[in-house]
Design goal:
two-stranded antiparallel sheet; globular
Length: 206
């Protein structure tokens, strides 16, 4: 999960369940969340409108724009009515709280850990959800985990290749600039699995 800055204005009509299926609403939500699930950061095969604060406990927030997030169906189900860190609130500093690591083998679990200095319940609860999202291995969850890990590893391989190309272009300024821009795009809010790629930069700043 990374910080997502929401910029779209609130859709004009947002009062009934039907409005949650309107073109205006869905496209505003897709723009705000860059067409990716805010929890797993994957591109979404089946989109869900996720109530960040669940309607079970906050029925008054059912049609409140700021409470409606874009997620994939799987993450929506896994999160359910649990509370997690709010990735749209800059002051939460979500990216300082959780560390990510992914091996290049699909059979290996993804590592998701508390960053130094954080041990609050909300961060721990968020890590528990992410554990199920990336590593869930019950028969029902395993299929989704495999697909997600494949997408994650594919993205990490592209990212790694860009770095190698960047290194190889040591003596060619134009080429180096080209790869630098591509690396930078891969670290942007809109890029899938940005948390994992940003972690690489944090761990190897040089
Ligand atoms: Zn997801």
């Amino acid at each position: 999960m990374i910080y997502i800055e929401r910029k779209q204005p609130k859709p004009k009509t947002l009062k009934t369940k039907k409005d949650l299926y309107s073109e205006e609403f869905i496209s505003a939500l897709e723009k705000d969340f860059h067409n990716k699930c805010y929890i797993c950061e994957g591109r979404i095969p089946a989109i869900n409108v996720e109530h960040f604060k669940p309607t079970k406990f906050y029925p008054e927030l059912e049609f409140v724009w700021e409470n409606l997030y874009l997620s994939c169906e799987r993450c929506n189900k896994i999160k359910g009515t649990k509370s997690i860190l709010d990735c749209t609130d800059k002051s939460v500093e979500i990216e300082s709280r959780i560390k990510y690591e992914c091996s290049s083998f699909r059979a290996h679990d993804v590592k998701i850990e508390l960053a130094n200095g954080f041990d609050d319940d909300l961060t721990k609860g968020t890590i528990n959800i992410l554990e199920i999202v990336y590593n869930g291995n019950t028969p029902i969850r395993e299929r989704g985990t495999n697909l997600l890990r494949k997408a994650l590893i594919d993205e990490m391989i592209i990212f790694q290749e860009l770095f190698e190309n960047y290194e190889d272009a040591k003596f060619n300024e134009d080429e180096r600039k080209f790869y630098e821009n591509r690396i930078s795009n891969k670290l942007s809010q809109a890029s899938p699995f940005a948390a994992f790629k940003r972690q690489i930069i944090k761990d190897t700043p040089e």
